[in-house]
Amino acid sequence: MLHIVNGDAVAETLQQGVVQGELLVWREVYPEGPVFREAVEPSHRLVRAKYLEKAMGIPEEDFIRSSEAQELQLARFREYEDIVLWFEHDLFDQTMLSYLLHWFARQSLGQTRLHLLCIGDYPGVDLFRGLGQLSASQLKTLSGTWHAVEEDELKLGSAVWEAYTSPDPKDLQQLLREDTSALPFVKEAFGLHLSRYPSTDNGLGIIEQLTLEHIDSGICSPIELFRQTGNQLHGLGMGDLQYWHVLSSMCEGKSPLLKLEGAKAFPGFVQPSADFQASRLVMTEWGTRVLRGEDHVERCGIDRWYGGVHLHGRHAAWRWDVEAKALVDCRE
């Protein structure tokens, strides 16, 4: 039996006698950077590796080596009678799950049986952030509760991956208007993804908007901001490296929204230093103006990837209408 899991913390706990068989930790951050339908294409992998090193400090060579290794192990799936996918409700996991379902949908499974365990809560956990929160005894109660993956799940997972990696965001928005009940967490997770696009109000995505609001309310510690924003947007499954990249971007450019005081930079692929833990963020005069309604993209431009969509320039082609909860085509 092979268990494909969403993180090292889960794998380490499962190894404490929770399950039998081998483990494959799927290490990816599909909500960040350019994402391609054919992710295994070497040229596509290299583009992602270069982006993730620059944006999040993940060494290019390490990323490529890890990606190639996990793909090689995945390709050996016929060696196992049963494969179990362990995932959860948030965008971080739903992107991984859709990729794997897309991959398996194009394989001949033969005698291998594919199973899925995907949850959005756990009894007694008030704010369920993910499987990594659970103890060995808690995970043991989930062992064996997985179900056989059906054709409709493979079909929908494949469609979600293709829509997410499409350069046209209308593909994903249209898919989310259809019946996605075969994968019950898709609609909320990818709907939250769309809210990361620059808004029609001021050009900020939901993460940047909430960050400014929290700072305006008096929260200035980056670590506390990560906790507060992460809890409020737990449906993103956003990790600390992702959030440090957001904050770093907000501190850059000719008209930064924020200024970091007490530390030279945000952490990369390392633990936060002592000076960072004591640092604080201050909203700039421009940040205050944007929070009050001036448009950040019109003044500063944008260069950001949303799955397969690349927005760049001073006039974002797509905006998120907060009230309508829909993307707006600004080219029309």
TrEMBL record:
Domain spans labelled DUF1835: 2-106
Short name of one Pfam family: DUF1835
Record protein name field: DUF1835 domain-containing protein
Species per Swiss-Prot/TrEMBL record: Paenibacillus chibensis
